[in-house]
């Protein structure tokens, strides 16, 4: 079964991650810029065939998505690791992002991007009632869909219980929580849990959390996009850990 990626970041990340997984690259023949030439050079060095096409042909292949003039056919999705495998190989406290029912591919792509930027070790999602990795997700993620372990689980509440057994502290982001984010202790192994676009955290998911915190809002908007909220929480965790390392003794 073949899959189609599009956009420079997604295609380049897949070549670097697993060039043997890439069957062919399709490039707009009008693209003669530095970025296109660098992609061709990378593909040639990794033994991946590049086919020049008309822009209209690329539009048809990608369903008129914003492909930036490049697409790639891959043999299948990149190999996905299991949650235990991710946790077993860590040499620092775990930092996970758990997404409870994100349905918008743009939101998932943006969450993967902030997970990569903040050094999160994996993104965990439920298999049902949530979006998976799609070409749109890969493009929005700008390569993070190929670098951040993406783990879809059958039962999210059970997975959270298993994470607790592995000594992770499960923290849910909830606008109605009493505790503020910046007063929470985030120095140990943490799994951040973010709710879906419409209903936020589901009841069972919320009950599975060890702690609920809110991001205090200074302006007039009632809430933040899930990717923005994820970035704030993940980077605050990194900040606290860096601060702890700087403390004497």
What does this entry look like structurally?
It is a single chain. With 249 residues, the chain is α/β, with parallel strands linked by helices. Helices cover 39% and strands 21% of the residues. The protein contains 10 helices and 11 strands. It has helices at 8-18, 34-45, 55-62, 83-88, 105-118, 135-141, 144-147, 156-165, 203-207, 226-246; strands spanning 3-6, 22-28, 49-53, 70-74, 95-100, 122-126, 150-153, 169-173, 179-180, 190-195, 211-214. The strands form 2 sheets. A 7-stranded parallel beta sheet has the order 7-6-5-10-8-11-9, sandwiched between helices. A 4-stranded mixed beta sheet has the order 1-4-2-3. The protein is elongated, with a radius of gyration of 20 Å. The N and C termini lie far apart (55 Å). The mean pLDDT is 89.
SSE order, as H and E? EHEHEHEHEHEHHEHEEEHEH
On the 0 to 100 scale, the average pLDDT is 89
CATH H-level superfamily of the largest domain: SPOUT methyltransferase, trefoil knot domain
What is the global morphology?
Answer: elongated
Number of helices: 10
Q: Quick one: CATH class of the largest domain? A: Alpha Beta
Q: Tell me the strand order in the biggest sheet.
A: 7-6-5-10-8-11-9
Summarize the biggest pleated sheet.
Answer: 7 strands, parallel
CA-based gyration radius: 20 Å
How many angstroms does the end-to-end distance come to?
Answer: 55 Å
The CATH architecture of the largest domain can be named as: 3-Layer(aba) Sandwich
């Amino acid at each position: 079964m073949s899959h189609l990626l599009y956009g420079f970041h997604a295609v380049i990340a897949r070549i670097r991650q697993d060039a043997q997984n890439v069957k062919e690259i399709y490039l707009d023949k009008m693209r003669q810029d530095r970025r296109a030439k660098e992609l061709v050079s990378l593909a040639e060095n990794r033994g991946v065939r590049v086919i020049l096409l008309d822009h209209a042909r690329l539009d048809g292949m990608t369903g008129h998505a914003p492909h930036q003039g490049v697409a790639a056919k891959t043999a299948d999705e990149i190999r996905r690791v299991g949650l235990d495998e991710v946790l077993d190989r860590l040499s620092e406290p775990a930092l996970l992002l758990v997404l409870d029912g994100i349905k918008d591919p743009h939101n998932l792509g943006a969450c993967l991007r902030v997970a990569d930027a903040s050094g999160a070790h994996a993104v965990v999602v439920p298999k049902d009632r949530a979006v998976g990795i799609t070409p749109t997700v890969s493009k929005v993620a700008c390569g993070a869909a190929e670098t951040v372990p993406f783990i879809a689980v059958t039962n999210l509440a059970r997975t959270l219980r298993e994470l607790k057994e592995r000594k992770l502290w499960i923290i849910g982001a909830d606008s109605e929580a009493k505790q503020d984010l910046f007063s929470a202790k985030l120095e140990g192994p943490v799994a951040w849990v973010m709710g879906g676009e419409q209903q936020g955290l589901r009841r069972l998911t919320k009950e599975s959390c060890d702690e609920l915190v809110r991001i205090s809002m200074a302006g007039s908007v009632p809430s933040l996009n899930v990717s923005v909220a994820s970035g704030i929480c993940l980077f605050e965790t990194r900040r606290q850990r860096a601060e702890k390392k700087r403390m004497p003794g």
